[in-house]
Amino acid sequence: MMNQKKNKKQFGIWMDTQNATIIGFENADSETFAVIGHVHNEGPEPNSSEFAAHNEEKTLTQKYFKKIAALMPNIDDIHVTGSGQIQEQFIHYLAATPQYKNVVSTDSTSNKMSDENLIIFIGKHFG
Fold this sequence. Notes:
Helix content is 34%, strand content 26%. It is of the alpha/beta class. The chain has a single domain, classed as eRF1 domain 2 (Nucleotidyltransferase, domain 5, 2-Layer Sandwich). Strands 3-2-1-4-5 form a 5-stranded mixed sheet. It is globular and about 50 Å long. The mean pLDDT is 90.
């Protein structure tokens, strides 16, 4: 039987509301996880209107999610971890996006870790 793991498009992300680190296979034939990108969310400009600030924050969050997803054009499995609830919002974003609606996603809570430790963490998750 063929190795099921091989050729699976598996990704891991550590994220909070400001930063995301995306882990994936180095290339299509690789079985080694590596950092494939970092994405930063600028955050809203100071605004006197709470409504305007909330709308801007929602728009920026959507842009943030799009930038992250753009680094992973095809996903079979994804594990999203982080220190808040943004990872759950990102999984909902993927589920609501036709291109990603069949993605198998899991999430967990973790503190910020070095890129090297994140690679190990994601490797163990999919191992």
